[in-house]
Design goal:
41% helix, alpha/beta, 6-stranded parallel beta sheet, 2 domains, Rossmann fold, 10% strand
């Protein structure tokens, strides 16, 4: 039985994965590293900025000083904010889905983005108060594909619901994701996963329990079907 939903942020609520790629590409270019979009999507996309930077440097056999690392982690979010000057690229149908889901289920958000980035975007759409729990990169130590962020989000969601309700178990929780690493983390957490194609083509998301082409395809009444098995 479906009892709670955890949403990813980048690639689900915001169609901004290309912006994150360009921002990280330009930030590491200052370190003499060249990355392609294919490499970024295959290796680094689910990670937070710090984990992404460390992985890029490791994979390219580049050692950087603490000062260089600190600067790159300042430059990348600044470049990302510059990309948002023309407005937030919200996914079509996000307003309707989030509001409808919040009216029926406790919902949380777990993302490798910073909490300030998440909250600023949600506030623009008036969606901030729809979520009982919002977790950003600051709130967990190991990012996706680790299940840590999902399990922590569920723990906090149960705490927010209080003692009047039986705790939601992982197998009663739905994760809405767009990335391969996100799907892996959700399944490792013991949760059902619905994937939205876009960041990756449908055929690369086959590990999810269901794949849709956009948020507009999601029908809340049909989600219980994922739990019949």
């Amino acid at each position: 039985m479906l009892r709670a939903i955890i949403f990813d942020f980048n690639g689900i609520i915001l169609n901004d994965e290309p912006l994150h790629f360009r921002s990280m590409r330009d930030a590491v270019a200052e370190l003499g590293i060249r990355i392609t979009q294919d490499e970024y999507y295959a290796e680094y996309l689910p990670m937070d900025d710090a984990g992404c930077l460390d992985a890029i440097c490791r994979n390219h056999s580049v050692k950087i000083t603490d000062e260089q690392r600190a600067r790159a982690l300042q430059v990348k979010p600044r470049l990302y904010r510059d990309c948002l000057q023309d407005g937030y690229p919200f996914a079509p149908g996000v307003d309707e889905l989030i509001r409808a889901a919040a009216g029926r289920y406790p919902i949380a958000l777990a993302s490798g983005a910073s909490r300030s980035e998440i909250e600023n975007a949600l506030a623009v759409k008036g969606l901030l108060n729809c979520f009982q729990v919002i977790l950003g990169a600051e709130d967990f130590t190991v990012g996706k594909p680790s299940p840590q962020s999902y399990l922590l989000a569920l723990e906090k969601l149960n705490r927010a619901m209080g003692d009047f309700f039986a705790p939601v178990r992982p197998h009663q929780c739905l994760v809405v994701e767009d990335s391969i690493g996100g799907i892996q983390g959700a399944r490792a957490a013991g949760m059902i996963c619905l994937a939205v194609a876009g960041t990756y083509p449908r055929e690369k998301l086959s590990a999810a329990n269901r794949v849709v082409s956009s948020l507009q395809e999601i029908v809340l009444d049909s989600l219980q079907e994922l739990y019949e098995d």
